[in-house]
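Justification of computing resources. Each target in the renewal requires a structure prediction run like the one illustrated here; the chain below, 128 residues long, is used simply to show the kind of job we budget for.
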Amino acid sequence: MSVQKLAPIVLGFEAIVVLLVGLTIFGLKSLPWGLPQWWAIIGGVVVALAMVAVAGMITKPWAITAGWVLQVIVALSAFFVPAVLLVVLVFGGMWAYATIMGARLDARSPADPSRLTEETTDTHTESD
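Resulting structure tokens:
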């Protein structure tokens, strides 16, 4: 359950940043010679929409893998603007935390409910 709560939040915020990265690549004219610069905006929009779509379908078994693929695609954009590596480190780290630690939290067995009841209902007086 933790993965299903954390992962969409990371992808949602990262989608906004990916749009801005596309605009940055466009503005800096960082695409290779001969390739129209507006492709940077198209690429940013497509990857951002893919992130929103994966965030919405995070309960599907393939969604976590698709999220990792999107992280790699964002990392590849650092070839055009090396400063994107900062985005890759921050959001890649958050994605790793959300998926790996979230899965560990999900795998933990819940505490024994009978033990919790005994601890919360046990009252003590000053004479104890």
